[in-house]
């Protein structure tokens, strides 16, 4: 049985954490000097493992295995959110590399191989899932031309030029080469920790449905307009959000979440009653039936608000993605591996966060493995996972990949 080397996994992760180290986390935006150095280092580690590794024209790293038999693709992303954690993304890259190493070191499994992929900008600094979308063939040159870093305004082309990668071709997936794609990741929530579990097997990556709420009232003087006659768009909007928050718990699914990410008041002055108010609102769930129900209710609540209120309230759907379903046979392989390595300590669960696997799932049977996040914290420099859980997850992933390679 291919056996991972715990010290190699932990030392690779700690070495990566030194690129852009920030407190106990990392600050490693894509194509920053630290990120470029981390990518060069990781590509070197891939070559040491016998993979033919190249960094491509979007800064993806692709490491091809020379083994003659069946192949599995695995990986994640290396860049971080700003001033964030050391494991988000890096964990899945190192696990994939370790699986490739452990499988090639074992006489019984070395005929099969793991290709390792590191997808650029999963965290959305320059765009949305640029690396995995490039790899799966749904990123065009025009979008790359337009992309700029949302924090610094730096153009993606310029950043790629600085790195020396701008003129390189972009790797494109060859689905016929692979039996499966696996991505491991920290959970980023507290489901596993709260249940005293150590491995999560992802059933689906949630769909995200987004809306704009617009309320039109009447802009007027905050001192001279009586309460009886004013039409305060801001107040009406806040009342509507309150009604949603009271109603949704009665009809939502067990893991539905909703977020008002932004509220705007127009004109937004202290002595003016807002004449217009707007909000960006988001629903997430892995079940489209639940999302349909919540959306119908949203429109119903808006009608009720319009009948009883003094303003006009409109709900406009901005986007609605479908959940990315993880492959059942691959989930079963992860179940078997987890049951062997951590009996009674694993569960199936949806992912509330987006991941590169949702794009790969359009081309290949895909699966995801979660390890616990201490305190449920991520996208913060205190993000962490115990060494024992890190090591366990690497072995469970490797076992599941072996299972698929040998099936
Ligand atoms: Zn991530």
What brief labels describe this structure?
nine-stranded mixed sheet; binds zinc ion; four-stranded antiparallel sheet; 24% strand; globular; 407 residues
Describe the structure.
The chain is of the alpha+beta class. It has helices at 6-18, 33-48, 90-105, 130-135, 141-146, 156-163, 191-194, 233-251, 288-308, 328-341, 357-360, 387-406, and strands at 21-22, 25-26, 52-55, 61-64, 71-77, 113-119, 181-186, 199-205, 207-216, 220-221, 257-266, 272-273, 276-285, 312-320, 324-325, 346-351, 366-371. Helix 1 (6-18) runs antiparallel to helix 3 and helix 10 (328-341) packs across helix 12. The structure holds zinc ion (ZN). Zinc ion is lined by residues 77, 88-89, 122, 185. The site of zinc ion has 5 residues, from loops.
Summary of the model, kept short:
The protein has 407 residues and is α+β, with helices and mostly antiparallel strands. The chain contains twelve helices and 17 strands. α3 (90-105) packs across α12 (387-406), α8 packs antiparallel against α9 (288-308) and α10 crosses α12.
């Amino acid at each position: 049985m291919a056996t991972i080397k715990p010290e190699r996994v932990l030392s690779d992760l700690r070495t990566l954490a030194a690129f852009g180290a920030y407190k106990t986390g990392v600050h490693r935006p894509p194509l920053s000097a630290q990120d470029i150095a981390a990518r060069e280092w990781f590509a070197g580690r891939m070559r040491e493992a016998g993979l033919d590794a190249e960094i491509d024209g979007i800064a993806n790293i692709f490491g091809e295995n020379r083994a003659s038999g069946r192949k599995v693709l695995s990986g994640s992303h290396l860049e971080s959110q700003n001033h964030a954690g050391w494991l988000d993304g890096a964990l899945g890259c190192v696990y994939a590399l370790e699986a490739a190493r452990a499988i090639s070191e074992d006489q019984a499994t070395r005929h099969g191989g793991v290709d390792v992929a590191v997808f650029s900008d999963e965290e959305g600094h320059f765009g949305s899932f640029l690396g995995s979308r490039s790899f799966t063939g749904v990123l065009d040159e025009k979008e790359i031309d337009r992309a700029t870093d949302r924090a610094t305004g730096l153009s993606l082309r310029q950043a790629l030029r600085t790195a020396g990668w701008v003129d390189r071709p972009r790797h494109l997936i060859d689905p016929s080469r692979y039996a499966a794609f696996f991505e491991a990741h920290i959970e980023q929530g507290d489901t596993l920790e709260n249940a005293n579990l150590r491995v999560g097997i992802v059933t689906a990556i949630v769909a995200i449905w987004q809306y704009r709420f617009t309320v039109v009232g009447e802009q007027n003087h905050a001192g001279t307009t009586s309460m009886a006659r004013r039409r305060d768009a801001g107040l009406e909007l806040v009342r509507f959000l309150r009604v949603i928050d009271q109603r949704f718990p009665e009809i939502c699914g067990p893991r539905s979440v909703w977020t008002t990410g932004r509220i705007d008041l127009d004109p937004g002055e202290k002595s003016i009653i807002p004449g217009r108010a707007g909000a960006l609102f988001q629903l997430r769930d892995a079940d489209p039936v639940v999302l349909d129900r919540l959306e119908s209710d949203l429109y119903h609540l808006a009608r009720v608000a319009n009948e009883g209120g003094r303003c006009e309230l409109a709900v406009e759907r901005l986007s609605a993605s479908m959940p990315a379903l993880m492959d059942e046979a691959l989930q079963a392989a992860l179940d078997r591996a987890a049951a062997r390595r951590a009996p009674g300590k694993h569960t199936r669960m949806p992912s509330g966060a987006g991941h590169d696997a949702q794009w790969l799932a359009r081309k290949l049977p895909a699966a995801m493995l979660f390890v616990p996040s201490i305190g449920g914290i991520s996208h913060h420099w205190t993000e962490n996972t115990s060494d024992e859980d890190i090591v366990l997850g690497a072995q469970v992933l490797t076992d599941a990949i072996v299972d698929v390679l040998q099936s």
